Amino acid sequence: MRRKTFKNRKAVAAAALLGTAVLAGCQGSQTARTDESSTEAESQQQTEASSEDVKEEKKTELVIAGGDGAGLVAAIQAAAEGLDPASIRIIAPGSTLGEDMENMAPYVNAYNTQEQFDEGIEDDFEIYLADTVAAGENTGRQEMASYLVENGEMAVDWIRETLGIELGAISQQEGSSVARSYPAAEGNLNEEVRSAMTDKIEELGIEVTYNAEVTKAAYNEEGILESVTIVTEDGEETLPCTALVATDLALLPVFENSQVYENAEGPAALIVSDCAEQLDESGEMIPGLYAAGPVIEAAVHGNKALAGNELTSMIVYGITAGTESSIYISDSQ
User: Fold this and answer.
1) Is the Cα dihedral 222, 226, 232, 235 positive or negative?
2) Are 313 and 132 in contact (CB under 8 A)?
3) How far apart, in whole angstroms, are the C-alpha atoms of residue 166 and residue 127?
4) Assuming Cys at both sites, which of 42, 155, 166, 327 could form a disulfide with 315, CB separation 3.0 to 4.6 Å?
5) How far apart are CA 108 and CA 308, in angstroms?
6) Whole-angstrom Cα distance, residue 313 to residue 293?
């Protein structure tokens, strides 16, 4: 399963971060000074060096283009993977975060879970995928739906472990042939998840730029992302960055080189691999570009999402985009 791949990549990322930490420790010992005869000039140089270090720490490495639920998941997961929260910046088109979650069914879906086993519920990948495809009237991209189905349990675990939200008894919802949907133990699951994520973003100190729009993604001669241009109430700003996670559906025209799913019954959508990488027209990944959330949902679900799958997809692809982009950034350094 893909989750095993994540665990392997986390080990690589952790090792890289450990090496960085060791280097940082060496630099710290080198700057320690006990010589009281240090001159004023040396002191000034140290101050300037410290200021440069702070500037470097605040450099934006990852831009999350969208303040929806998937964007919050990606930002939180990237930080969990070891990416410095100060290097993550969320560009939100409105004045609040996670508004798209309000109209989702308040359930998260997963198959082959402990709860299903305990209750003798027979469910598997094929049954869950068949329900997912049927709900979308067989109009979505099955490979993207398959990735959602395969990793549903990852979404359940993330809600419980990362956000600390208790889930209620498993239930059978409209369109599902068996019970595989989890509500919140108390209240509305969407509201609980949204509130916990916005609290987590604030706790981590991840910067959010509200009422802003990403208007351009710029690439170097090798076709690798190097910056994005945003427009705010204060004007235009160019942000050098290493990776971009797109979630806002309005961004579709910005990625003119990306492969697009055309849905006759609804909006178009970006097509991504099972690593949430944006693909070009030949099916090759575009270095540094990832997508999750509303900008891919039509391709995942087709004409309609199975009840509970919107929240599941939001979390599964958000986790994937956050994980993969953080690894890409680490490998690029």
Assistant:
1) negative
2) no
3) 26
4) 155
5) 5
6) 7
Q: How do residues 313-325 score in pLDDT, each as one tens digit?
A: 999 999 999 999 9
Beta-ladder partners of 330:
none
Does pLDDT of 72 surpass 60? yes
DSSP for 134-178, written as a single string? HHTTT-S-HHHHHHHHHTHHHHHHHHHHTS-PPB---B--TT-SS
Residue 201: pLDDT above 60? yes
Q: Is residue 56 scored above 80 in pLDDT?
A: no
Contact 246, 125 (CB under 8 A): no
Q: How confident is the model at residue 45 (pLDDT cuts 50, 70, 90)?
A: low
Q: Which residue has the tokens 């993207």?
A: 144
pLDDT of residue 58: 66
**Alpha carbons within 13 A on the beta-carbon side of 291:** 29
Side by side, the strands of the sheet bearing 225-232 are 213-219, 225-232, 235-240
Cβ neighbours for 54, distance < 8 A, ≥ 6 positions apart: none
For residue 246, give the nearest of 207, 205, 292 by alpha carbon: 292
Give ∠ CA 73-291-66 in degrees, rounded to 5.
Answer: 60
275-304 tens-digit pLDDT? 999 999 999 999 999 999 999 999 999 999
Q: What is the pTM of this model?
A: 0.84
Burial class (CB in 10 A: 0-12, 13-18, 19+), 322: buried
Residues 6 or more apart from 243 whose CB is under 8 A from it?
A: 61, 62, 63, 225, 288, 289, 290, 325, 326, 328, 329
pLDDT digits (tens, 9 = 90+) for 181-193: 999 999 999 999 9
103, 109, 131, 281 from 180: Cα distances, Å: 20, 5, 11, 36
Cβ partners under 8 Å of residue 38, min gap 6: none
